[in-house]
Amino acid sequence: MDNKPAWTESGAILNQLMEIARISALAEMASGIAHELNQPLGAIATFAQAGERMLNRPDPLLGQALDVFRHINHEALGAGDGIRRIRRIFEHERAAHEVCRMADLVGELRPVLDMLATRVNGRLQVEIGTAPELPGLRLDRLKIQHVLFALVQNAFDAASVRADQVPEVRIEISGDRYAIETSVIDSGEGVPAEIQGQLFRPFFTTKLRGTGLGLASSRAIIEAHEGTIGFEVRKQGGSRFWFRLPVTAA
User: Fold this and answer.
1) Which residues have a Cβ under 8 Å from the Cβ of 173 and sit 6 or more positions away?
2) Among 19, 101, 220, 223, which has the highest number of CB atoms less than 10 A from its own CB?
3) pTM above the 0.70 mark?
4) 99 in Cβ contact with 138 (< 8 Å)
5) 109-141 residue pLDDT tens
């Protein structure tokens, strides 16, 4: 699975690195992000075992197994590419931007996001505003997909805390001619007030094996794209993490 954090504009790079340097050396940052990328490889192995079980059934689930193995192969290769890209990030390599639609980025990443849902026996829904048709954005495809992956992964982790319901995550894409907003909404218990101010700080994590880099790198990516990122605790339960990218960047 790909999980690829990065920065683009040199000013944003320097600002983020100055903040991170107060906590740890850049080498540690690179190592931590690489570790974050390597974790999905363990999930890939788990899904491979699941695929094998599908084939070993008295009535093999051939179609489902083939889909699983295709996605595993593709994402395993992509994870290696992601690690190489991260190394280049810290050499201040400028990323190439292209015009993309958020709906297309979500669609490309959907098989991986569905795997996250399967891992916790959860459900993933995607809702895309179409009236009027949402414009494209000039962005780095892989970096924005990293943000999506990180937010959805966190959302399923949060939703899985509640044992009284099926973990549910919903992605909503909306916008107008000025900006496109992407929201990731979970059915969890919300973000405790005492940690809300720390969520986007590098190396802050509430997970036993977390690196604390997913949200920090996501913020850096979105701000480097001249966008904004934030969250809110929903009155009806759960949280909504969102990021907004300006159409003027297209």
Assistant:
1) 102, 103, 106, 126, 127, 128, 129, 134, 180, 181, 182, 183
2) 220
3) no
4) yes
5) 888 888 888 888 888 888 876 545 788 899 988
Distances (CA, A) of 230 to 173, 176, 183, 197, 216: 15, 19, 10, 11, 11
Could you tell me the mean pLDDT of each successive run of 10 residues in the chain, 250 residues long?
43 46 42 59 78 85 85 74 58 64 88 84 80 80 86 87 83 91 88 67 58 74 90 85 82
Q: How many CA atoms lie within 13 A of 44 on its CB side?
A: 20
Measured in degrees and rounded to the nearest 5, phi and psi for residue 135 equal: -75, 165
Q: Choose among 138, 133, 212, 128: nearest CA to 176.
A: 133
Any residues with CB less than 8 A from the CB of 79 and at least 6 apart, and which? 1, 2, 3, 37, 38, 40, 41, 44
Residue 112, burial from CB neighbour count under 10 angstroms (0-12, 13-18, 19+): buried
Q: Are β-strands 228-233 and 123-128 bridged in parallel, bridged antiparallel, or unpaired?
A: unpaired
